[in-house]
Amino acid sequence: MKNYKNLFVIAVIVAANVCIANAQETLKIVSYNVLYGLKKDSVNIDRFANFAEDWKPDVIALEEMNGYTQKTLEQLGQRIGHDYVLQSKEDGFPVAITSKYPLVNFRKVTENMWHSYIYAKIKGIHFFVIHFSPFSYEKRLKEVTDILAQVNEIPSNEPILIMGDFNSLDISDKDKYGKEVLDAMKQSEQKHDHIRNLHNGAIDYSVLGKLHEAGFKDTYRLLHKEFESSVPTFKDGNGNIKQKNTGHPKRIDFIWANSVAASRVTKSGIVKNEYTHYISDHYPTFIELKLSK
């Protein structure tokens, strides 16, 4: 009888250890365009810190970290429990990444990119953090082609993620972009010579189409059939709080995964809560990913 009791205790301990191990095998990842470096506003930075404390991401990919330096990014990282951080540059519209875990073989690329991108490997996952041109689909086509050329240097049996603000629409959402959206885009091009986002007068889907062609999966669509916008929020592009989240709902923020990474995605979505309504003019996207054993 004593032996049975001992075996039962051992079984319970083993089961508990298995549960702990399984809990440690998931990586929570957020991608977030935070609007001009959180406007360098202490109240807004508090909102972001509260969001991070509440959501507890292991890795955050950040776009529009305007005004931050590597040093001030490190300070923000320490506040949210991310000791490993990297920013692509200090001028213009930088991208950045913060993590609880070390960044391996990282690099910062500004050449041939409208803004820039970061590559890093974290816990065996290859990360590309991007922010594509807001003004030209042709430039975005060049940017995505450049990213995919870098991806092709990575062994295809390793997990790869491409995330950020793509400033592009996906064909899976096509039925949500009707005449009102097209007319608004046409009016924008008529007013501004530097804006050329339409392709032969039609909404362009070719940029994200390149990712589909390369075998990447839209992690939101892996687990969701319904449409969910990443813009607008209750904050406008100048950082002012709005009474309503007015504007044409669009999904331009994505986390794309190659087939290896996609097979490990357990959760995905767009985070809309009392913090993210007011932090930025974009909502953050997230995934949870199983790590390899």
Automatic annotation (TrEMBL):
<keyword id="KW-0732">Signal</keyword>
<keyword id="KW-0269">Exonuclease</keyword>
<dbReference type="InterPro" id="IPR005135">
    <property type="entry name" value="Endo/exonuclease/phosphatase"/>
</dbReference>
<protein>
    <submittedName>
        <fullName>Endonuclease/exonuclease/phosphatase family protein</fullName>
    </submittedName>
</protein>
<dbReference type="InterPro" id="IPR051916">
    <property type="entry name" value="GPI-anchor_lipid_remodeler"/>
</dbReference>
<feature type="domain" description="Endonuclease/exonuclease/phosphatase">
    <location>
        <begin position="30"/>
        <end position="282"/>
    </location>
</feature>
<dbReference type="InterPro" id="IPR036691">
    <property type="entry name" value="Endo/exonu/phosph_ase_sf"/>
</dbReference>
<dbReference type="GO" id="GO:0006506">
    <property type="term" value="P:GPI anchor biosynthetic process"/>
</dbReference>
<feature type="signal peptide">
    <location>
        <begin position="1"/>
        <end position="23"/>
    </location>
</feature>
<keyword id="KW-0540">Nuclease</keyword>
<dbReference type="GO" id="GO:0004527">
    <property type="term" value="F:exonuclease activity"/>
</dbReference>
<dbReference type="Pfam" id="PF03372">
    <property type="entry name" value="Exo_endo_phos"/>
</dbReference>
<keyword id="KW-0255">Endonuclease</keyword>
<dbReference type="GO" id="GO:0004519">
    <property type="term" value="F:endonuclease activity"/>
</dbReference>
<keyword id="KW-0378">Hydrolase</keyword>
<dbReference type="GO" id="GO:0016020">
    <property type="term" value="C:membrane"/>
</dbReference>
